[in-house]
Amino acid sequence: xxxxxxxxxxxxxxxxxxxxxxxxxxxxxxxxxxxxxxxxxxxxxxxxxxxxxxxxxxxxxxxxxxxxxxxxxxxxxxxxxxxxxxxxxxxxxxxxxxxxxxxxxxxxxxxxxxxxxxxxxxxxxxxxxxxxxxxxxxxxxxxxxxxxxxxxxxxxxxxxxxxxxxxxxxxxxxxxxxxxxxxxxxxxxxxxxxxxxxxxxxxxxxxxxxxxxxxxxxxxxxxxxxxxxxxxxxxxxxxxxxxxxxxxxxxxxxxxxxxxxxxxxxxxxxxxxxxxxxxxxxxxxxxxxx
Amino acid sequence: xxxxxxxxxxxxxxxxxxxxxxxxxxxxxxxxxxxxxxxxxxxxxxxxxxxxxxxxxxxxxxxxxxxxxxxxxxxxxxxxxxxxxxxxxxxxxxxxxxxxxxxxxxxxxxxxxxxxxxxxxxxxxxxxxxxxxxxxxxxxxxxxxxxxxxxxxxxxxxxxxxxxxxxxxxxxxxxxxxxxxxxxxxxxxxxxxxxxxxxxxxxxxxxxxxxxxxxxxxxxxxxxxxxxxxxxxxxxxxxxxxxxxxxxxxxxxxxxxxxxxxxxxxxxxxxxxxxxxxxxxxxxxxxxxxxxxxxxxxxxxxxxxxxxxxxxxxxxxxxxxxxxxxxxxxxxxxxxxxxxxxxxxxxxxxxxxxxxxxxxxxxxxxxxxxxxxxxxxxxxx
Lengths: 290, 381
Description:
Chain A is an alpha/beta fold.
């Protein structure tokens, strides 16, 4: 079992003719993802890696019966690409693009709330259901299928924690990188809700970081709504206030909210253990499963 | 990107927000010439990117030419929380009765902008927000429509602003929102918005922070970026295009991906060391970028040891290894011990080409960090 994607998911790649788009289309297809179309304005009629390209997402969806899209479009055009995807009846849109202006995302987020689509990202590695499909840039070889769900704000930290799990023989149902930007489509709470409803997911790893209050909201959700055990990790304990640490969202405000301490405390209060190291997170998961 | 007060005030004034008459000056003589133009009292304000300038001695009010000369001499060249003051804004002093606050920012929790108004301006607004949140009226804005005039009025009346100036404050708030949107700002604030004895309002300070990710749409604002205003190493990192933050410890850290680099910092701290920096080489880094990253970290005199932590997704381990080799082979003697941990895409190929005579290799993140912390302790002894 899995959430959001499986081997039936039919994927459109927006920006398939670009360097990243074509490279990762090939990688996704090698992994087994059912990539059925590309969408690039002005490039309709071409083929990339054997996949037909359409001028609009609408055409791609109606001609190839797609139900998901993955976006590899430069930041200046990414919001428009997300609007276009949301204007079709796709179940899932994954925006990989890094550096989308925050005000653009506020408008996309506003539109998203009028639809039934799940948007993951932007500025994220994507989503993978090991052994079935991946939408995004995650390195497939470190994942293995199993019964642990994973949701994370950081791409490479996802890989690190998955590696810690896989090395111990603990596989994953689905792993989602939700992205580290201030405004994103799918939040921790959205992902946790999906994992809670998935009968195969027996434990969840949640990797957060400094900035914002999404982890605190997640803690509240875990305490009130979840039977599936969750283990956490929070990056940025040593970050100085007022400095942006790479991710647009990873900045500690001066007023004490959004700090690693406040997030760890909220999670602990919700009964969610937080590892000091990725290895400790795997210890907690191992304990839950035993 | 944060604009200086004088830059933000130019932007605000262009949009129609009233600001005091002012001149920028970078020498005592220029300050004296400016006060002759503007008259007394005149505020002399350090133009550096730090908060709390007034308390730190960076803002003084001169009532005579002698005072102007004396204060200019005090402030120009002073060290303000690590920044050297090389420019001051000389500004007409405002005879005020009240100090208000107006601001627009992104409420990331709500995913939409929020406009704020308070009677309690002129002080640290974060403290007001924490201690008496009811003193700040907030109005969330639908980004699809922008701010409706009624919303500005609602916030202004909600904050208990006097009726005789409510119209002026509403108009300034509407202008501030439009400007915030137009400039792709993350924050636009006026604190204090002064109310004069003639019941006019005027922006005595101006804060404008612009979303770095949107600068491509604003070449005019991008040009205002003041590279000299930061740390020397941070300026260098900017040139190389790295996400870099300088810290106070002695373990240099290089990695890929913000979350993983932050985690590496945290583990250095966890194992008893102190991080010297945050340096994210980003995704898909090629050899040259890796060489530049090592150059960055080695040029920090505080660094006693270096840990390289790469988990490849887009980034390929063999490219990284090539970069490390190239960077280190240029030295007769490696300046500081380097520990490397490579995992993920092409990590195996990377490990095979890595010159292990120049670096120490560890397989896990935990081992790599512990070794780097030990190295730092040995070197600093």
